[in-house]
């Protein structure tokens, strides 16, 4: 079996690593160079997307911000899973909101804004504080503004206007203005859906962010009611998209209720713990779904957490002395804040896991992991 | 970190897969073509061993039947782990027996035989039935004879003589004549030793062979006395060799005692279950030892078994419906009896594992897995 992944970053790399044992040959389309590469070596496989499409039995994506031209070419081949509509919905907050509203899934109160008049109208309807997010190409905290006081509105609108005018994607940009949700914590669910509509959801994950970027994920398996609520949302969203593959949903937890923050039509950073903590990892399950193989069990094997390595290209070797610690480097060049790798760690029970996380936090340098210790101490 | 593996088969491939997340770049020296290749792609990296040695920070091996010239070249670079002496000992039953006797480790009563006169003398000292094994280049049942009755001795000697004369290795061949051990079962231990002498042993594995080739392995964690006995043998043998890396020891179990059958100075087929069943898999632990990183915990995560795929290049997809079943193909061309891949399966406890093994045996075709069902039913 041969699979082309749109995007050639760490997610394509980890898909390729999970695919080798299944004899699935994965190549990645690098949108920057417009070449098809081997995600496990620096070698170029094909010089064009068209050749990559011909090579592949199936095509999938590692990110949602893909030009519509590329998606159209792939979809025309009949090999693209999930569909271009699923990918576009993940990449456009307007489509995402329409999907959530249509499926009756709780999410933050919001308005779509394109003009100053829309913006002023939204300010009159919504309750401050607000979070303003670009409809397209916003992730990891980019293209986001916070409005706490009406006096800041004009200055923020000028910023937004410059942002919209600077958009060179050729697609129509807009802003989704949302009421800030006073959430207790952020959780996410990664799940997988087959072409026949079968779904399996992984246990919910508690996510700790730092400056808008995921820092620590912790698989939580002890809240059956929350798990059921999230699974219901997952099933509705995945069905609404006629989705094939792994899909991630980020939620705000407020009391005992979950509100969808956003969806990602792909394997997700908050699911990296599944490499060591689940019966089948998210990368293998995505490939199983895309290649129309049976889905794998998503059962938690043992409590597991993940720590992102951001902007650092080394960690002390002594972390490998801690049992069950697994290092996952992405082979990327160091850049401030860049996702360079992650660390997975497991324990037979939550207490052992937290002990090991505490040991990790003591070893990891504060300058590279500024808030990890504080979060772990709060567990 | 860059590692050259001597040998370019499935063990090098699985070492490379386990090494990618650690940012360890693995290349493999294919002794057939005398080229250095990328074990994860068909590409040739270097045209000669010398270039491969220059590329590498460390050198290791996936098999023990390597020409002494190659070993000498690698050892001269100061990068070879384990040492050439360790590799040679695994590849020569004479050296192996000297090591075991020297360390006072129980093994089958035996004589080394080079001439008809040696052979006749051995027949007078040892008790039938006997197993005769070539000192060099014997594995998976090749270069082995069984002598049950003295009347067969002349015919077998003629066979052996032809075998010795046909040896083109340039090394002195001989036969180790051993008393057959009336064993209850075959078990093995895989363990790892660091350059500083630290050792970690995995749980013992029960091995079921079919026609001399490993068919099923089952991690067994419930016999503390046996585990202690095997660990003691492992520590003595590894220390005797001043070993660095993963080392496997095959034992005959007779009652509550273990006799060493043979050692393998490398990752081992009976340790493949560690990919899903242990805190750190044998491939990663070998690389950690060779690259002088901290060793990983060898703790059993949950009961796990492995089934070899021999001579078949497909299995029914429906085995992937069984939770925790993981397929590992080696990407090799099909040939009768060839090791093509393996299947790992886990359970939260032994009962769940055996239930899943039973489901597997019902799906796997009898023609490709002739004796697996019978063995699993016997558990």
Describe the protein in words:
Two copies of one chain form a homodimer. In chain A, 31% of the residues lie in helices and 27% in strands. Chain A folds into three domains: 2-80, Rossmann fold; 109-179, Dna Ligase, domain 1, CATH 3.30.1490; 185-377, D-amino Acid Aminotransferase, Chain A, domain 1 (2-Layer Sandwich), CATH 3.30.470.20. Chain A contains twelve helices and 18 strands. By secondary structure, chain A is of the alpha+beta class. In chain A, the strands form three sheets. In chain A, strands 10, 11, 12, 13, 14, 15, 16, 17 and 18 form a nine-stranded antiparallel sheet that branches. In chain A, strands 4-3-2-1-5 form a five-stranded mixed sheet. In chain A, strands 6-9-7-8 form a four-stranded antiparallel sheet, covered by helices on one side. The first copy, chain A, has helices at 10-19, 49-55, 68-76, 84-91, 93-102, 116-125, 153-165, 224-240, 274-277, 282-290, 350-363, 372-377; strands at residues 2-6, 25-30, 35-37, 44-46, 58-61, 110-113, 130-134, 144-147, 175-179, 185-193, 199-201, 205-210, 213-219, 245-254, 257-264, 304-310, 326-329, 339-346. In chain A, β14 (245-254) and β15 (257-264) form a beta hairpin. In chain A, α4 packs across α5. Chains A and B meet through β17 of A and β17 of B.
Search tags:
homodimer; 379 residues; alpha+beta; Rossmann fold; Dna Ligase, domain 1; D-amino Acid Aminotransferase, Chain A, domain 1; 9-stranded antiparallel beta sheet; 12 helices; 18 strands; 31% helix
């Amino acid at each position: 079996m041969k699979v082309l992944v749109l995007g050639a970053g760490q997610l394509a790399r980890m898909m390729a690593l999970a695919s080798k044992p299944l004899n699935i040959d994965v190549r990645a389309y690098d949108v920057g160079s417009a070449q098809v590469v081997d995600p496990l070596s620096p070698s170029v496989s094909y010089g064009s997307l068209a050749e990559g499409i011909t090579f592949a039995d199936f095509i999938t994506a590692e990110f949602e911000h893909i030009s519509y031209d590329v998606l159209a070419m792939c979809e025309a081949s009949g090999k693209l899973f999930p569909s271009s509509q699923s990918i576009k919905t993940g990449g456009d907050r307007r489509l995402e909101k329409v999907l959530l509203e249509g499926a009756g899934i709780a999410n933050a109160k919001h308005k779509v804004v394109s003009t100053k008049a829309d913006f002023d109208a939204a300010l009159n309807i919504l309750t401050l504080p607000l979070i303003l997010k670009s409809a397209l190409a916003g992730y990891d905290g980019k293209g986001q503004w916070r409005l706490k006081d009406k006096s800041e509105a004009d200055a923020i609108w000028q910023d937004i206007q410059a942002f919209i005018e600077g958009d060179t994607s050729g697609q129509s940009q807009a802003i989704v203005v949302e009421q800030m949700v006073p959430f207790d914590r952020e959780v996410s669910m990664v799940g997988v859906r087959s072409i026949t509509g079968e779904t399996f959801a992984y246990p919910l994950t508690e996510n700790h962010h730092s400056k808008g970027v995921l820092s620590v994920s912790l698989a939580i398996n002890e809240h059956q009611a929350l798990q059921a609520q999230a699974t219901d949302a997952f099933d509705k969203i995945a069905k609404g998209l006629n989705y094939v593959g792994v899909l991630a949903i980020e939620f705000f937890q407020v009391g005992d209720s979950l509100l969808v923050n956003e969806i990602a039509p792909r394997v997700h950073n908050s699911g990296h713990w599944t490499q060591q903590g689940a019966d089948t990892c998210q990368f293998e399950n995505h490939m199983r779904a895309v290649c129309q193989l049976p889905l794998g069990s998503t059962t938690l094997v043992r409590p597991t957490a993940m720590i992102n390595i951001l902007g650092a290209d080394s960690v002390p070797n002594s972390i490998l002395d801690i049992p069950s610690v697994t290092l996952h480097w992405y082979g990327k060049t160091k850049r401030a804040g860049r996702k360079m790798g992650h660390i997975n760690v497991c324990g037979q029970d939550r207490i052992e896991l937290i002990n090991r996380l505490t040991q990790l936090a003591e070893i990891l340098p504060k300058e590279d992991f500024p808030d990890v210790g504080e979060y772990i101490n709060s567990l």
